[in-house]
Amino acid sequence: MRIGDFPPDVQPHLIPSPGGAYRYECLACREHFGIDHLLYTCPECGSVLLIKDQDWNRLKSIPGALWRRIFDFRSMVPVPALRGIYRFHELLGSILPMEDIVYLGEGQTPVIEANERLAGWAGISMHFKNDGQNPSASFKDRGMASAFSYLNYLIKRRDLKDVLAICASTGDTSASAALYASYLVRGVKSAVLLPHGKVTPQQLGQPLGSGARVIEIPGVFDDCMKVVEYLSENYAVALMNSKNAWRILGQESYSFEIAQWFEYDVGKLVVVVPIGNAGNITAVLQGFLKLLDLGIIEGLPTVIGVQSRHANPVFLYYLEPDRSKRLFRPVDVRPSVAQAAMIGNPVSMPRVIHLVEQYRGIAGTGSFQVLEVSEQEIMDAMLLANRNGHISCTQGGECLAGIRRAVRERRVDAGSVAVLDATAHALKFAVFQEKYFSDGFEPEYEVSPKEELQNEPHLISPPEGVPRPSQDVRLDPTEFERFLRFSGEAIAGLLGLKPR
């Protein structure tokens, strides 16, 4: 549609102009810093940072009802950047001009309602938000679109050369960072650090395919993270982990899209998110708080974070009901099928603590909860979801197991509607499905397959005397007829088909 075809009150707002006064804000000492350089921690005290628009209140001059119309009508504007997360430009990085935004098709992922069988199993009406349908097949693309758009903005204005984008990863972050870096060919290269033997072959292949320098080191993700933190503190690199506050900013779009999908009526929603490095749940909380502050939504949804028992530091922190007695302690992780969440010392934990207090202060203690589930529950739930039309990863299975537990423990209100985060595509974690089907899990995973969830291919093997076609041998019509009859009858018997 042409701009002149839109309603007059919306037209002036459809193509956003750069604006705002962005600063880094330290969560500990409350100091503010300019954004002319990339910062990952506070130069004064070393704590993590949030990005704040110091001119945020200017957005309140537009009523919430008009903001809703602006965001909805932008979906029809033929500007590529507005088709992705920057449909919500003013809420994300409003200093960025449209021409600096890197858009690879991220955002606007579908929300798929569960069928009656799966909803009945979970005990609640529910949906999966399929973030595995982002370009690199995971939710990380939301944050990378933001971080690389800002990096692109800096490169152009400061004429930076030979920028190295680097990250530590359990798989998805590296795939996303490598993809976006490969698109920004103007002086940008990428390197990723992975824990050796702790990444699926599918995830390992993605950064390699995008041309990144892939470096494996001994240990787990937390060890990789310490190494890239050392590099970012001592060398000129662009850190692309969630310690980069621009990453968190982009991931807030997840909340904005959920609100838009449900026509901005989110009060009865239960949003379920897996917790790994705690960046995504931080972004979800911040996103809904922004929408509420601008009057775009009228109430906050319940947010539930889920962790595996094999990597549960956030769960253990919130076990203590008395806020004054809580003490965060990192944990040593054990092998988990939810590899993206297998993090014992999440770098965004200070952001979580800060935002949870804000969130609960508005909507009550029950508005934010953390649950833990077993590895068995995660695998069973993932397979069951995908048996019912979804493309859930193991982290999506973690969410499904979590909402089922929440329902059984009566942690959510009757009549609520759950939205579960399927953070990545099921194909990224096919190796765990194969282990389940073949009963090949190592003992430390504590997963025993259930027969009703196992599956395997059936080979039709004609006996001696029945011709077999092959790549090199073409059967004559009589021979092929014998093969056809045998195979057809064998398959009919296998499937229990009845003759016409």
Any overview of this molecule?
The protein is of the alpha/beta class and 500 residues long. Among the domains are: 111-136 and 252-453, Rossmann fold (3-Layer(aba) Sandwich); 139-246, Rossmann fold, CATH 3.40.50.1100. Helix content is 36%, strand content 13%. The chain has helices spanning 64-74, 116-122, 140-158, 172-183, 201-209, 221-234, 245-251, 253-261, 279-293, 313-319, 349-363, 375-386, 394-408, 430-437, 477-495; strands spanning 22-26, 32-33, 49-53, 111-113, 125-130, 163-168, 188-195, 213-217, 238-239, 269-274, 302-308, 368-373, 417-422. It has a six-stranded mixed β-sheet, sandwiched between helices. The protein has a four-stranded parallel β-sheet with strand order 8-7-6-9. Helix 3 packs across helix 7 and helix 12 (375-386) packs across helix 13. The protein starts with 21 loop residues before the first strand and ends in a 5-residue tail after the last helix. The mean pLDDT is 94.
The count of strands amounts to 13
Q: What's the order of the H and E elements?
A: EEEHEHEHEHEHEHEHHEHEHHEHHEHH
Strand residue percentage: 5-15%
| SS content category | alpha/beta
Keywords:
globular, Rossmann fold, 13 strands, 36% helix, single chain, 6-stranded mixed β-sheet, 4-stranded parallel β-sheet, 500 residues, alpha/beta
